[in-house]
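explain this:
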Amino acid sequence: KATAAATFARVITLEKLTLSSLPGGMDLQDLFISLQNHTSLKELVLRFFRLSKLAVQHAAQMLRQNTSIQSVYLNVEDNVSAIPIAEALETNSTLKVLERHWLNTEETHAFIRVLENKNFTLEELKGYCCYNPTRNDRSNAEIQAAQENRRKIDFYLSLNKDFQRKRLFSSDENAAVQDWLDVIASASEREKMDVIFYYLSEKPSLITL
């Protein structure tokens, strides 16, 4: 493992790391530990790995501590929950793109809870659907619930990406009332009612202006 750590130390300045295998003696837990305090890496692609429960926990800890990574591709083993990844996004303030396959109902609800009022940075949750795509026996109620969950996730991601939620809610930015109004005005006709309702719910004082 010392050799593996030394090997990985040589790529410490990379901005993008795509792995199809790991250096000899290193496992995924070692990788995520090595990346916790990495300050250059912006994109991590682990397309050919399926994370175990332990690896998911280390990946979540890496996302909590790393302050540079902006894009991650990962997948997990069958019957291993990705909820720790969602919960790590409560404090992560740099990740903009997360790519994985499908989310079960519990994982979907975890991402919705985090995106609703904790994470204002994530802009894309790529390649996901809110149900197991291999199932063909879903009821209409299940399909409708999955579609509604997808709509909620997409809406919160859109607020982060297109409607400056992070800047408006940041105490450091000290956004003026006009900043809020400008963001609301930028919404298309299709988006405007949802955006207006959301921001007025969060900042009722805008109604008196």
Notes: The two ends are 62 Å apart (CA to CA). The CA atoms of residues 63 and 88 lie 6 Å apart.
